[in-house]
Design goal:
Alpha-Beta Plaits, alpha+beta, 2 domains, 5-stranded mixed sheet, about 300 residues
Length: about 300
């Protein structure tokens, strides 16, 4: 699952929690770190003695999961003394998404080596539970958005979300004078597959084709199922020749993954339209792509027209 970004209001809420921790605990510094693939990044800090800046990579605070505490609380992220930062005491607890993946940790630091009190431990644990409740709400909202925007069968974007994105990209391309391409795709012979092999096999073919589309697109592109066996590929900042190359890459991926395909000889037709001066709206561009698709299907299976 791709986790959503933490939004500014929630970060401010977390900052208030961090400030409260510092007010209650007799410590010089408190941090919230976001755990990346290799290092931890400081996203929030409290205390006059914090030498780390927001956005700074805290390589010296590389988090190491320790054994769960005797009280049965969340496992601690512990660190031995870090002379480079001038702190001899560090204590933190992971902040996790609902699926158990760590977001990062909240921690307190002190100039003097000491043990953590039960009061401090409870306060940090309660702060973590509060923050994790916020992450759970974010994740639930993200899941709702994805369910609303996804095609139920193929798990790629549905027509409603596609049209919304198309209108946005159309306006952006017009405003900045950038190219925009739309490819309309249709699986050849899907009706025959459903009749001869059954709708279960037809559904498998749709899922397979959607997975190939999702694998082939660039970041910023959008692949969607628009109806039945028809799909669309929206490619910002791309001219028609490059969009045609994208379509051919999809054909090559289908051939490469022939062992995964539920039907032999699966092919598709494609119609491509590039944004032009005559396009008065996003739907005009969509209609031209559909017309190109109609021409391609009239020429036989596996054809591309633009």
């Amino acid at each position: 699952m791709v986790h959503p970004e933490i939004e500014r209001p929630q970060l401010q809420d977390w900052q208030d929690v961090l400030d409260l921790v510092l007010d209650i605990c007799p410590i010089p510094a408190a941090l919230i770190l976001h755990q990346g693939e290799e290092d931890a990044e400081v996203i929030l800090a409290a205390g006059k003695e914090v030498s780390l800046q927001i956005g700074q990579v805290a390589g010296g605070l590389a988090a190491v999961l320790d054994n769960p505490s005797p009280e049965g609380e969340a496992p601690e992220w512990s660190l031995c003394r870090d002379r480079g930062l001038g702190f001899d005491f560090f204590y933190g607890i992971p902040i996790r998404w609902p699926d158990g993946i760590p977001y990062g940790l909240i921690c307190i630091l002190d100039r003097e080596a000491r043990s953590i009190s039960g009061r401090e431990r409870r306060l940090i644990s309660q702060s973590v539970r509060y923050m994790e409740a916020g992450l759970a709400l974010l994740a639930a909202r993200q899941a709702l958005i994805e369910a609303t925007n996804q095609d139920g069968l193929t798990k790629i974007a549905n027509r409603e979300y596609f049209v919304s994105r198309l209108q946005g990209e159309f306006s952006r391309a017009r405003r900045y004078g950038q190219p925009l391409c739309l490819a309309a795709l249709d699986i050849d012979g899907l009706k025959g597959i459903n009749i001869e092999r059954g709708h279960d096999v037809g559904d498998l073919a749709l899922r397979f084709f959607a997975s190939v589309l999702a694998e082939s697109i660039r970041k910023g592109d959008l692949a969607a199922r628009t109806s039945g066996g028809q799909f669309a590929l929206l490619s910002p900042s791309v001219k028609v020749e490059q969009a045609a190359q994208f379509v051919e890459r999809i054909r090559q991926l289908i051939e490469q993954r022939v062992g995964d395909c539920p039907v032999s000889g699966l092919s598709f037709s494609a119609g491509i339209a590039e944004l032009g001066m005559s396009d008065k709206s996003a739907l005009t561009l969509l209609k031209r792509a559909d017309n190109a698709l109609f021409t391609a299907k009239g020429r036989g299976q596996g054809q591309t027209c633009y």
